Amino acid sequence: MRLRSIFAAGLAVLTISSCTIASNNSATDQDQTETSTLTVYSGRNENFISPFFDEFTAQTGIKVEARFGDSAELAALLLEEGKNSPADVFLSQDAGAIGAVAAQDLFKTLDSSAISVVSEQFRDLNSKWVGITGRSRIVAYNNKKYSAADLPKTIDELLDPKWSGKIAIAPTNASFQSFITAIVQLRGEEKALEWLKGLNANKPQKFEKNAQMVEAIDQGVVDLGLTNHYYVAEVSENLGREINVGISFFNNQDAGNLLNVSALGILQTSEKQEASLKLLGYLLSKPTQEKFVTETYEYSLLDGVVAPVGLPPLDQLGIPNVRLGQLSDVAKTQELLITSGLL
């Protein structure tokens, strides 16, 4: 009898302990999401993206430990690290860099429910990454000297001798090289090289950075510049005044209207998949997308979010049909730039 009582008592204790452990495990699973620290490799500028990471942490309790750097260099690091990478998430400045990582099958497949808010045009065909924001190529111009009607309407019109010495480019910049890579994709290497040689023959002025180019247009040093749309707003804000620079787009479907995207992929090896998806959900939420538009002047990729002030809606940009994830062959682009004399 006494043995039976001891056994019964022990069984009761075991049952209570099991319930407690199960309860604790459930709480631990919940806490793991709420107190996780995500390791994000970010090709986005620290000053630009850190406030968004901070807001995400405030909303979810999930901390973000970011490694900042050039997107192409971070992509190369991920390829080198392979399955041993400590990264949970890669947030790339452009589609080419993230496409290179996706090509090596290092990302998990994202569920359609997490990415369906973004048009298929701005995400990976195999759902390995999704676009977060968009940056359109434009012609920035001196609006005291020209009206939009005076400007080239195709990239081939840039080769007209009347623009000799009047066009600015940033040939070492990643955004310019992605633009050239898109031309290669659309026209082939031979035609792309022919265009580059024509541009070089027109003696473009070369700058290291896009912002420097826009400042030079404002100062009357050069008339036109091939750049991303948001640099005009950025320079204006930095100078604290309206600048003498307008924005013009090319004809519908012209290569000059390339829209590149910042993009996010989640590493297959991450043990924090749920927390990573929460970060993705935050970045693609309408309030965050609206902040990207108003605070950074980038395009939201979501339907129903207005374009940056003074710019046409996303669906009216006349974006060429380019496979963004295949803008990663920059080595070939650099060879063409060197052969043409632009580098």
UniProtKB/TrEMBL annotation:
It holds the Pfam family SBP_bac_6. SUPFAM superfamilies: Periplasmic binding protein-like II. Keywords: Signal. GO terms for cellular component: outer membrane-bounded periplasmic space. InterPro entries: Ferric-bd. The keyword Transferase does not apply. Belongs to the bacterial solute-binding protein 1 family. This is Unannotated protein. The lineage of its organism: unclassified sequences, metagenomes, ecological metagenomes.
